[in-house]
Write a structure and sequence with these properties.
Helix 2 crosses helix 3. Helices cover 35% and strands 26% of the residues. It is built from four helices and five strands, in the order H-H-E-E-H-E-E-E-H. The chain is an alpha+beta fold and 118 residues long. 23% of the residues are buried. A hairpin with a 4-residue loop joins strand 1 and strand 2. It has one domain. Strands 2-1-3-4-5 form a five-stranded antiparallel β-sheet.
């Protein structure tokens, strides 16, 4: 078995990588609330699975997902998704406040062990 990190990265698709990142963010208390499809924001029903969210997000080459976290206070964060590069580059940008950037980076490291070294 090849344990080269590049091989492992290519084995994880944009789709499966984003599903795993969403699952980890949920474990950290961040829940996806809306999706920008390139034209408008629309609310994500609480009944949608991570797979359904990623499937909808895949309809556009450039999109945004908004998240919220309810703890002592309400916090929001947004990730920008750009498709078509290598999967580790799917999340092109994110909100750098309220601990959201640390949560996203942690989630990405659970999917890609050598993130952000690539």
């Amino acid at each position: 078995m090849n344990t080269d990190s590049t091989s492992a990265t290519h084995a994880i698709s944009e789709y499966s990588g984003l599903v795993a990142v969403l699952a980890d963010l949920q474990l950290q208390g961040w829940h996806s609330t809306s999706l920008w499809d390139g034209e408008q924001w629309f609310s994500i029903p609480t009944t949608w699975s991570d797979d359904e969210i990623v499937e909808r997000a895949a309809y556009t080459e450039l999109g945004n997902l908004r998240f919220s976290q309810q703890s002592d206070s309400f916090s929001e964060g947004v990730v920008q998704l750009v498709r078509g590069n290598c999967p580790i580059e799917l999340i092109a940008d994110m909100t750098m406040a309220n601990g959201f950037d640390e949560a996203v980076e942690r989630a990405q490291r659970t999917v890609w062990s050598d993130y952000p070294k690539m």
